[in-house]
Design goal:
Distance between the termini: 195 Å
Structural class: mainly alpha
Number of strands: 0
Shape: rod-shaped
Helix content: over 70%
Radius of gyration: 62 Å
Length: 249
Amino acid sequence: MLKRLLFTSLYLLFFMPVFAQTHEDSMKNNAVTDTIVKHLAVDTTAKKQTDTAKHAAIDSVVQVHPADSAVKHAVVDSASVRYKPAIKTAKKSPAKTAPKPAAVADSGIKHSTVKTINDLRYNAYLKGDDLDGMALTGDLNHFPSPDSVLKYKKQLDLSPIQVGQLTKLSNELHRKKIEMGTNIIRNEKMLDSLFHSRYIDEGSLIFYTNRAGLYFGEMKGAILMACYNAEKFLTPAQIKKLETLEKNK
């Protein structure tokens, strides 16, 4: 019994410090392990939180940008609509009755644009009237002008064919006289301008005066040609009666 107690005491004295040291080391090891595990857990959690935060931030950016764009477009559109200048519609004023212009007698006389041509001759050139008696050579020699014949078509008992032929001659002659009259006015205006500006020279003077003679000559030629052709469509009796009517008018 004493041996057992002695052995137990020695056992306790010898092995107790060892157990204490071992227990202390295990506690330390456990503490370290717990610390590592805790740090790992914390790091993992922090990392997860960071990743989650990043994803959340990215998601928020992705989601916010379209919203921002939409908002910006909405703002721009609203601003453009808000500040778009309104189109003012002209107010219709009550209709006013315009005063009727006083009736003015139209004499048909135009003022001459060339100081070397008076108003009477200027209008005669524009209308195709013969103020110079260019048909006189034909009339005095039994070649009447078509206009003179048509003036007495009833008295001369002209046939429809004769009236048609003479009307055609008269219309063509009238067109030619207006054409030449316009050319005479233009040529005279050029001569006046050259003298007025003192740009006249011998060559220009000869050219434009010769051309004036050409226009007058062409007009007279057209008138006498119409007289020549009108005589062909009339009988001698009609020509004699026409001359009598012309003397007695």
